[in-house]
Amino acid sequence: MTSVPTDSEQVERANTALYEAVERGDTTAMDRMWLDDPDVEVSCVHPGWPVLRGRSEVLRSFALIMASTEYIQFFLTDVEVAVAGDTALVTCTENILSGGPAESEGELGPLVGQLVVATNVFRRSGDGWRIWSHHGSPVLASEDEEEPEEGEGPGPSAA
C-alpha cells in the first residue's frame, strides 16, 4: 500500500528539485519551480548579490548562473522543513562543489568548494509547492574556528 506524501515530504522534494534543476542547467524546470502568481512577488538573494524581485529578474539570474558555471553540484545537509498552512519554510546548508572553465579542451577546470546557508520559502499552488523566495548567505567561518572570549576583541595580530 502506497501512502500519500505529507506536505513536509512534498516540500522537501520540491526543494531538492530546485537544486537538481540548477545542477542540470535546466531553465525550463527552473521556470516551473517558481511561483507564478500576479498577486505575489517572488524574491531571491544569491550570496553577495542584492535582492532580486520579480519572477523575470529571478529567473534571469539563475539562467546567468547556470550558463556561466561549467559544473555545479549541491550536497544539502541540515535540511529542516516547517509547514504552516499553504506556506513552507526550508532551511539547509548548501555544500557546493563547482568548477570553472578548463584551461585545455577536454579537461575539467579547477573545482572549488563553498558552504552557503539557505532559506527557501514555498507556497502551495494549484500545481503543487512552488518556491516564493530563496536567500543564500555564505558561511565565512568554519565551526573549528574559536570564538573570542566574552570581553575580548579581535585585537592586533601578532605577526
Quick recap:
The chain is of the alpha+beta class and 159 residues long. Helices cover 24% and strands 36% of the residues.
Overall pLDDT score: 88
Largest pleated sheet: 6 strands, mixed
End-to-end Cα distance: 67 Å
Question: Looking across the biggest beta sheet, what order are the strands in?
Answer: 2-1-6-5-4-3
Just give the CATH class.
Alpha Beta
What is the H/E order?
HHEEHEEEE
CATH fold label: Nuclear Transport Factor 2, Chain: A
Q: How large is the count of helical segments?
A: 3
Organism: Streptomyces morookaense (Streptoverticillium morookaense)
InterPro entries: NTF2-like_dom_sf, SnoaL-like
Pfam families: SnoaL_3 (PF13474)
Domain SnoaL-like: 11-139
Q: In words, what does this structure look like?
A:
The chain is built from 3 helices and 6 strands; from the N terminus they run ααββαββββ. The chain is of the alpha+beta class. About 25% of the residues lie in helices and about 35% in strands. The chain has one domain: Nuclear Transport Factor 2, Chain: A, CATH 3.10.450. Strands 2-1-6-5-4-3 form a 6-stranded mixed sheet. It starts with 6 loop residues before the first helix and ends in a 21-residue tail after the last strand. β3 (about 70-85) and β4 (about 85-100) form a beta hairpin. α1 (about 5-25) runs antiparallel to α2. Pfam families: SnoaL_3 (PF13474). This is Nuclear transport factor 2 family protein. InterPro entries: NTF2-like_dom_sf (IPR032710), SnoaL-like (IPR037401).
Which key features would you list for this structure?
single chain; 159 residues; alpha+beta; Nuclear Transport Factor 2, Chain: A; 6-stranded mixed sheet; 3 helices; globular; NTF2-like_dom_sf; SnoaL-like; Nuclear transport factor 2 family protein
